[in-house]
Design brief:
By secondary structure, the chain is of the alpha+beta class. 21% of the residues lie in helices and 37% in strands.
Length: 217
């Protein structure tokens, strides 16, 4: 288990806050009950930040015939829908909701070349809202596999997620299971797959990024 690089600033700020609030409590010699409340709050904040930005080491089993899960979380959508940004046709949408307690590393579901990338500023509706896919702050990534099949995946900010980070750009070659981004504090990742793709998960399934097989071609 390691601490993700995206959490360094947040961890530094929390440690500074803990140091200041505890120093003030000691300086003014506040009563024992208040001191214990401060100690408990300090420990809670520290543990929360550490668990949120944890980045477990994973062994990825590469398989060009499957779509790996792009994030830890719960499957909240499986449906046929119109993808209006890039494909402009019907696709199978699979959406994974990440709560604040999930690992928030985002991983490439397939290997290939990034044929399209775009960042969209937007709103911060709750991640399970039907319009979050089109109205919220988000990124759209399309990876073309070596056989020509394209898979679209989208990072979507939620009500608490106020920063999306991505590590890919158009023309870049990416490998299945490698990190392509990170979203802070509760969010969602959507996958758009060709019609006829065999879906291996169900609504409410708990899934693991880079491990769970979402679909098979």
């Amino acid at each position: 288990m390691k601490f993700h690089k995206e959490g360094y600033t947040s961890l530094a700020l929390v440690i500074l806050f803990i140091f200041v609030i505890n120093a003030i409590a000691d300086y003014y010699d506040v009563n024992t009950i208040i001191k214990w409340v401060i100690y408990i709050l300090s420990a809670f904040l520290f543990i929360t930040i550490v668990q949120f930005f944890r980045s477990p080491k994973k062994t990825i089993l590469l398989d060009d015939n499957v779509v790996l899960c792009p994030a830890d979380g719960k499957v909240v959508v499986i449906e046929e829908t119109e993808e209006s940004e890039y494909f402009k046709d019907k696709r199978i949408q699979v959406s994974i909701f990440m709560s604040p307690v999930n690992v928030h590393v985002n991983r490439n579901p397939v290997s290939g070349i990034v044929s399209y990338f775009k960042y969209h500023p937007g709103k911060f509706l709750v991640a399970w809202h039907p319009k979050s896919s089109t109205d919220n702050e988000r990124t759209t990534v399309v990876v073309k596999k070596k056989n020509g099949v394209e898979v679209l995946f989208r990072q979507i900010a939620g009500a608490l997620a106020r920063r999306i980070v991505w590590y890919v750009e158009e023309g870049q070659e990416v490998q299945q299971g490698d990190e392509f981004g990170f979203i802070k504090f509760g969010s969602r990742v959507d996958l758009f797959l060709p019609l006829g793709t065999k879906i291996n998960v169900n609504i409410d399934d708990k899934v693991v990024g880079g491990k769970t097989v979402i679909a098979q071609f």
